[in-house]
Every structure is written in C-alpha cells, then in structure tokens.
C-alpha cells in the first residue's frame, strides 16, 4: 500500500461554527444539519443550492477550480458507518449535484467502508479516527473503470481531514500518478463565531509525524 | 381534523424521504408545533422495565426543557412515559398513531390521546374508518422516523417494532441513538448491527453532543431563506 501523503490540497465552499452562539453561528449549524441529511431550508434543497454556488465560483475562475476542474472524477467519501442499500449517502448526493451543475467529468463511487468506525464529529479529542483507521476500514473497487485524469475526493464536512488522508493510499494504488485533491462542502471552525457561511477556501491538509493539521 | 400532504405538514422532502412517505396525514391539534423546535422520537417496548421507563421520563423532561418537541407512538410502556413526562414538564409532544384518528389503541391511552389531540398534535396516516391491520404499526414507525430529526430507542427486544423505526432513521440519514444499557446487553444482537450502520450511544456523557447535533429551528421551517 502506498504511504499516506504528507500533504493534500483541499477546497471547501462553506464554513460552520462548532460552538459559536450568535445567530449566524447557530444558523451555520442548521446548514450543516441540512447537508448531512440532504435536507431543505424553507423550500430550498441545501445541497442543490450549494452546488449552484460552486458552479458560480467555477464560472468566475474562483479558487474552487483548483479542485473541481472539468477533467476531475468526483469520488464520494464513504460514511463512517456501513451503508445499507438505498440509504442516504450525503457525499454521493453532493457529487451528483456538483456534476449536474457542471463540476467534474464523472462521479466515481469507488470507495467503500467495509468496517464501521466511530464518527469523528462525536468522538472526543484524542479518540477521533486517525488516517490509519480510515485506511484499514475502507477499500476501493475499480474493476472496469477508466483511469481518470484527476481525482477529487468529496465529503460533506471536513474537520481535520483524517478521512481524506486515510483513503488516499487506496486511490494512489488504484490510479498511480493521478493527481488527487479533496473537496468538502463545509469546513468546521472549531473556535469562536463566524462572519459569513459562504467562504470558498483552498488550503492544505498536512500529515507529518502522526500529526494532522488543516490549513486554514 | 385536517388533512395535509407531507410537504404541507413537513416541508419539501428529498427522494429518499419520499420513498415511504404516506400520501396524506390526518392531524388533530396544532401542526405549528412541528415548526417550533427540533423533533426527537422517544420509543421502546410496551413491556418496559422500571429502569427503562425512568430513562424515558428523564430524557423527555430534559428535551422538553430544551424546547425540543417529543414525538412518540402512544403505545403502552416507553411511549406513554415519554408523552406524559413531556406534558408534565410543560413541553410539547406529538403522537403518531397506527390507527385512524377516530380510534384509539390501546384503550388505556384513550384519555391521553384525546389530550394530545386537543392540546398538542396527533397524527395518523390512516383514513378515518380504516380497519387497523398489524402492518400499519411498522408503517407508522417509518412515518415517525420521517417526522423526527432524531430517534432514541430506550429499550427494545429483537422483535420490537421500534427497530423498524431505527432502521428507517438510518436509511434517512437521521440521528439514531440507543441507550448504553441496550448497547451493553449481551442478550441482544440488534444494537451492534445498528451501531455498525451509524447509530450512536446516548449517555450522560454524549447527551451534549446529541443536543448540539439537532437543528436549532431559529426560523420558521417552511419559509426560511438559505443563509448563503
């Protein structure tokens, strides 16, 4: 198995405040919940609305073009639990919405969770799954799949980026030399309030000496 | 009694939610209750243990104190404990029943059902006059999962109807919690299966995370604007 990358480029569209108490911070958590459940705010399907915002950013040659160019295969991140047939898979819904709005060349649901792991969002600090845990509990199935020109691993929320780092060796093994980036619809802001929910961002997830750091 | 479609009662639904949504709801009471707070189902066995009943009451009181709407099925045992504790705490509750609104089952809860129908909210997916069948109750459980932002199973055996609600909550991508006592019971096989598929354990330690994960309902549900 290839090694874990020491850094991985990432992009995100939105941000939410984990603990902020002002109205915008609390509303950002409603956005998070709606994305995780493919839900609506008012009459608007939030993932679809977000995909439109991504498309606007791409049309304006915004920062998300670094991850979501027209030649990219969109690979949905597996959920932390096992997936029953017909159950909601938010990352797949996001990929399909992005694709409908012109981001990416194809949706490639080739990563699968084979052993359930603890949800990062509800784990105490120090008990969150590490990249090794994600690598051990996922697999890739690519039989009959054409080699993509580039890959964007897509998830609903990015906290530290452990899952992105953890599944990357599987994709590197399956598609050697294909550039891999990652995209999350929402990044967490763990401290304080936020001033806006829409905040397209590019950055890096660093993994060095066993330490994960998302910048910004 | 009012007749409402799922979008009229709950707002628009995604394709997975539409799959088992009933064609219409028959409601008595105040449907606006559904817009006033996050909605949590408390469900479990009819033949519940004293400890299980106490857990249901304690959780219902806490949720009511947080302004969260408590949903349950008006069955004996855990359901009754959840409804009555919520009402006693001054909270709001929704009864989702497996009979038409013009019938009550079990008979013991006739007065409780009538109170919920007038002071809170009572929902059925079955047309008045429909003869009640056994399969109506699992259908009702799916509907309860659809109505609720989260489901908590307090106590349930391997054949409990609450399990159909749990699996439906997981299918919908909603929060599903089971009690520590269930997770640690070596006689039960279903808790580990549900935990593998995304259920979480509710305990005093995880309750803050559970409350934080619920939607805040800062604005009316049906006409809010997306804030980005």
TrEMBL record, chain B:
InterPro entries assigned to the protein according to its UniProt record, in alphabetical order: DprA, DrpA_SLOG
GO biological process, one term: DNA-mediated transformation
Gene3D superfamilies named in the record: 3.40.50.450
Cited Pfam families: DNA_processg_A (PF02481)
Keywords: Plasmid
Family listed: Belongs to the DprA/Smf family.
Name of the protein in question: SMF family protein
Organism expressing this protein natively: Allochromatium vinosum (strain ATCC 17899 / DSM 180 / NBRC 103801 / NCIMB 10441 / D) (Chromatium vinosum)
